[in-house]
Amino acid sequence: MRNTTRDKVLQEIKVDQPAQLLDFLVQKEVRKSRNAVKSLLAHKQIKVNGKLITQFDFELKAKDKVSVMKYDQSRKEKRLKGLKIVFEDDDLLVIEKEAGFLSVATDKEKSRTVYNSLNEYVKKKDKKARVYVLHRLDREVSGLMIFAKDTELQDIFQKNWDNLVPKYSYMAIVEGRPNPKNGTVTSWLTENKNFVMMSSLIDNGGLKSVTHYKTQKSKGGYSLLDFDLETRRKNQVRVHMQEIGHPIVGDKKYGASNNPIKRIALHAGGLILKHPRTGELLEFKAGIPKAMQILISETQKERKDKPEKEESI
Predict the structure, then answer these.
(1) CA-CA distance, 83 to 113, in Å (whole number)?
(2) SS3 (DSSP) at 123
(3) I need a labelling partner for 124 at 20 to 30 A (CA). Which of 62, 156, 194, 297 fits?
């Protein structure tokens, strides 16, 4: 028996001339922006002649009937353990990773990774499907990540990352109050035999690294900073905060004195992505994780009176 509530039609539109589905829906103003229309497709709310369509470049013909369906809560994608899917189309996945979850396998941990979870997810729809790694986040860092769905796109991203990802920003809570509040850190990074990144303020043959920071808020012995990176080096933000004497909370590898929230207080919260197929600019934001929010919102006395509890994003 069909669930009529689940299949409720919000709007029906007849096609008068050939067009691609996304362009048609934008032209008909079924939502206020292209991103909002793509969300309809991603959430399986568009039917053409009664058939569910998620492909944004689906070719419409004259006399086709396009239906906009009510969002089906029962069809909502479940949050995978340790991550949630922010965006998905035929080419890409954008996800938000929790702290404590590996991006890809290591010698010590091969099964519980974002990569493996996403491969299991896409194979439920197509046994031949898989995802391809474009970049990584450290285990104890949370935030946004992009995965491709074919090797061609993986290669395109690897060769054109700066053009396709014009902005990939972080936020962090650091120890103390940076002075000046806003600034730029430039240094040259090398990796020692223990896989720790070392910073030099003079050119020592390492990789030049540039981090811009801006203080958003200070309270007690902590400050919330936003970062824009000119370069993408391993552990760059973490090393640069240690360099200026304000290590990231919880980052004992790079100088932190304590770890009150049982994670590194670093979060990849902003992403602007130029879609490699359509050229469309997509913007994603992942708000500050609750544990970090509590840390910067309470005084040290309040934190002693109320023990911290790590929360899911």
Answers:
(1) 10
(2) helix
(3) 156
Domains and CATH numbers, the chain: 9-73 (3.10.290.10), 75-161 (3.30.2350.10), 169-269+290-305 (3.30.2350.10)
Q: Find tokens 């207080």 and name the residue.
A: 265
What residues form DSSP beta bridges with 91?
none
- 9-14: strand order across its sheet: 9-14, 65-69, 46-48, 51-52
Residue with tokens 């909370």: 249
- 209, 189 Cβ separation under 8 angstroms: yes
Tens digit of each residue's pLDDT (9 = 90 or more) over 143-165: 999 999 999 999 999 999 999 99
Can you say how many angstroms the Cα of residue 11 is from the centroid of all Cα atoms in its chain? 32
User: How far apart are the C-alpha atoms of 155 and 153, rounded to whole Å?
Assistant: 5
Cβ atoms within 10 Å, residue 197: 22
Of 151, 46, 36, 43, the closest CA to residue 88 belongs to: 43
How far apart are alpha carbons 276 and 149 in whole angstroms?
12
Q: Which helix (H) or strand (E) holds 147?
A: strand 142-148
One-letter amino acid of 113: T
What are the pLDDT digits (tens) for 85-130?
A: 989 888 999 999 999 999 987 666 656 899 999 999 999 888 999 9
Residue pLDDT, tens place only, 241-289: 999 999 999 999 999 999 999 999 999 999 999 999 888 889 999 999 9
Is pLDDT above 60 for 2? Answer: no
Q: Are 259 and 140 spatial neighbours (Cβ–Cβ below 8 Å)?
A: no
Q: Residue 242 and residue 228: Cα distance in Å, rounded?
A: 17
